[in-house]
Specification:
The chain has 3 domains: 33 residues, no CATH class; 196 residues, Periplasmic binding protein-like II (D-Maltodextrin-Binding Protein, domain 2), CATH 3.40.190.10; 94 residues, Periplasmic binding protein-like II (D-Maltodextrin-Binding Protein, domain 2). It contains 15 helices and 12 strands. Helix 2 crosses helix 10 and helix 11 packs across helix 12. The radius of gyration is 25 Å and the shape is globular.
Length: 341
């Protein structure tokens, strides 16, 4: 049974003084409060929903999701998120099987959705394409890559589409080069460092790391203001129907992380520096560049996204047409946006 604490006001003193009766009961109250805090912590941990989120590469493209987890934002929204790196076709296979709940690289699931798999893109965090073609030190111009090899993470993905497009925009026919897949941006960096490829398509912060070492930048997607859904969230259609509350919690948390990304510059630069083992200068430059591509409302106009996939199909970089209006679903995103207004 709980006992009411007895207090008396002390004249001339800014505060309260416990009576003798209260003083005798303080140890009991400390024990009770300690026990309640344990129960509260246990209840909180039990309320967290386990979520597995896949990301295709250890790249700043997916920084928002790393920060949402490591800064405790997902937990604040009742989510215990496990970040899992998945490459290539493993991503969509894991999503189909329910082994993961969400994918943060949405190009592959959207292409898979166009081929009949039950996926939907639900949010876009970055609308600017953040990729660079970085070459060996002995190669100074795009023309020097004719007859040589360019590395990308995976063929028939956003990276492959962008690499072909950048070469073409520089006035060179990409058919005059050979594009190979390495499996990850880290492998592409290693291949370039070892000289086994002439150039590689790199994302942040790997492009800055390599240019600091003397590897020249031949092309940048920012140079041509390319737009794409380079970072975002995709999930199964069943998830949208069966657990819309969780999906909205993920969207809310991601928006809060995006707000945090913009406001907490010092924290963000330190985080990037430590997580990617960078110099302060490269970390700061990477952060500034990364912010360029942020969406303001978690969306990219569907017509812009459609143009990207139509171009990829025309160049035979993807196997089938992607009807964007059918594979993107902003319904729950719009509901969260209304809450934020």
């Amino acid at each position: 049974m709980f006992t009411v604490l007895e207090f008396e006001t002390v004249k001339g003193v800014d505060g309260l003084r416990c009576s003798v009766n209260c003083q005798r009961k303080i140890p009991t109250w400390i024990a009770i409060l300690g026990l309640l805090s344990v129960y509260a912590a246990t209840a909180y941990s039990q309320e967290l929903k386990k979520v597995r989120m896949g990301y295709p590469a250890f790249s700043l493209t997916f920084l928002t999701f790393f920060v949402a987890k490591d800064a405790g934002i997902y937990k604040k929204h009742g989510l215990d998120v496990d970040m899992v790196q998945l490459a290539g076709a493993v991503q969509t296979s894991a999503l189909v099987a329910g082994e993961i709940d969400y994918l943060t690289g949405i190009t592959s699931p959207l292409v898979a959705a166009a081929r009949g798999l039950p996926f939907k893109g639900i949010m876009v965090t970055h609308e600017k394409t953040l990729f660079w073609i970085i070459a060996r030190p002995d190669i100074r111009r795009m023309e020097d890559l004719i007859g040589k090899t360019i590395a990308v993470d995976r063929l028939a993905t956003l990276q492959d589409i962008v690499a072909h497009d950048l070469v073409k925009r520089k006035g060179i026919n990409p058919d005059q080069m050979t594009f190979i897949q390495t499996g990850s941006v880290s492998n592409s960096v290693q291949s370039l460092s070892q000289g086994s490829v002439a150039a590689a398509l790199l994302s942040l912060p790997h492009n800055f790391v390599m240019t600091q070492k003397g590897y020249p930048e031949l092309a940048s997607a920012l140079e041509f203001n390319q737009r794409s859904a380079s970072g975002g969230i995709a999930t199964r259609e069943a998830k949208l129907k069966q657990d819309p509350a969780q999906v909205k919690a993920v969207i809310r948390a991601t928006f809060e992380a995006m707000d945090f990304n913009r406001k907490e510059k010092t924290w963000m630069v330190n985080y990037i520096q430590n997580k990617w083992k960078l110099t302060p200068k490269v970390a700061a430059e990477s952060y500034r560049t990364w912010l360029i591509g942020f969406t303001s409302d978690g969306k990219i106009p569907l017509k812009d996204l459609q143009e990207i996939y139509d171009t990829a199909l025309a160049s035979q970089l993807i196997p089938t047409a992607v009807p964007v209006a059918k594979v993107m679903d902003y319904t729950l995103l719009e509901e969260v946006l209304k809450e934020r207004r």
